[in-house]
Write a structure and sequence with these properties.
Blueprint (H helix, E strand, L loop, with lengths): L4 H14 L17 H29 L67 H4 L12 H12 L19 E2 L5 E5 L4 H6 L6 H12 L8 E4 L13 H18 L3 E5 L1 H8 L13 E3 L2 E6 L2 H6 L4 H15 L9
Parallel strand pairs: 2-3, 2-4, 4-6
Antiparallel strand pairs: 1-3, 5-6
Helix pairs in contact: 1-2, 4-7
The structure holds iron/sulfur cluster.
Length: 338
């Protein structure tokens, strides 16, 4: 099976992530280093994963077809790990269903070459992220309002066509950087782009974005007057929450955005945003409804608009959170039309 070094590395990372290893990128001084023999065997295992991934769709289709329609062995379809040069050996007949291995055992296709168990440090539960206050010292000077658009543009240029974390390879269409005023007193932080945001390149434009617009308007503001960004700038597949390595890799950019805009108040939308901003794994309930602080700004945690769409009964509680923000910023709700 011939694969490029990039494909081998990708398969290796996929394999480790399947095994529950998430912090490959995060540690400046790793506390656990893979022994050479383990690393070699994992690389061999990753190549087998690549081979199985390439062959699986064709094998499944053949297994599902009646015997009379069974095709002759053919080259596997080109996929992420398809062979580029090596001839493809004839495909073996489908095996009878195997008994599922006990949780923690190597998958059956590793056979006798199953890799040894990972060191406990690498299969440990998700580590606690650093808070945004721990990541870097607070800036000693404010960026003048006139310079903020250029500073944000320079940061966007620094991000470029980013491949710093696995979300770069998860089917994104656009890096979703920000929206709103670089001089905003109020900043909203969500967890990551969804499908609409990924396609448009603008945060909070889908149904949840429409509800966020309504919340902003109810506070007596326009969307153009606030600043909106996310913990991660690329869409996590299937709208899942960003994983540790993704969030902690991308947070360097959100941190700089906050330091450039220097809002008076930050509203964290949902548990994931609050957890990564504050460096904890606390529940939303324990964090919302009261003033906290992050990077020199007052922080209010409230429900994510997507959650409010699923549970509209919580809108009243979210409104109480936003009323505290309004009081802090001296905002009045817009006058009702007669
Ligand atoms: S999520 Fe952030 S760190 Fe990851 S690829 Fe996108 S821009 Fe880069």
């Amino acid at each position: 099976m011939a694969t490029s070094p990039e494909q081998q590395l990708r398969a290796y990372v996929d394999y480790l992530r399947d095994m529950g290893v998430y912090d490959l990128y995060a540690r400046e001084a790793p506390t656990a280093v893979l022994p050479e023999d383990v690393r070699t065997r994992l690389l061999e295992a990753a190549s087998k994963v690549a081979a199985v991934k390439s062959a699986a769709p064709a094998t499944a289709a053949r297994a599902a077809a009646p015997a009379a329609q069974q095709p002759r062995p053919v080259q596997p379809a080109a996929g992420a790990f398809a062979a580029r040069t090596a001839p493809t050996p004839p495909v073996a007949a489908p095996r009878p269903p195997a008994t599922a291995p006990p949780r923690g055992d190597a998958p059956a296709f590793f056979g006798d070459d199953a890799p040894p168990p990972l060191p406990p440090e690498l299969s440990a539960p998700m580590p606690k992220p650093k808070s945004f206050d721990e990541l870097a010292p607070l800036p000693t000077q404010r960026v003048p309002a006139a310079d903020r658009p250029a500073a944000l543009a320079a940061l966007r240029a620094e991000i470029g066509d980013c491949t710093r974390c696995p979300l770069a390879y998860a089917g994104r269409h656009n890096i979703v950087f920000d929206d709103g005023s670089p001089s905003a007193r109020l900043m909203f932080v969500g967890e990551g782009p969804g499908q609409d945001e990924d396609l448009s390149g603008v945060p909070f434009v889908g149904k949840a974005g429409q509800l966020l617009n309504n919340m902003i308007n109810a506070m007596g503001l326009k969307r153009e007057e606030v600043y909106i960004a996310n913990i991660v700038k690329c869409r996590p597949p299937n709208n899942r929450a960003p994983e540790f390595v993704e969030a902690t890799t991308c947070s360097q950019f959100l941190l700089k955005q906050i330091d450039i805009v220097q809002p008076q108040v930050i509203v964290a939308l949902g548990k994931t945003a609050a957890n990564y901003l504050r460096g904890n794994n606390d529940s939303l309930t324990s964090q919302r409804g009261r003033w906290l602080a992050i990077r020199g700004a007052k922080l209010m945690v409230t429900f994510h608009p997507a959650y409010l769409l699923r549970d509209p009964a919580k809108k009243g509680e979210a409104w109480k959170d936003l009323q505290q923000v309004m009081a802090e910023l001296g905002l009045q709700p817009p006058a009702r039309k007669a």
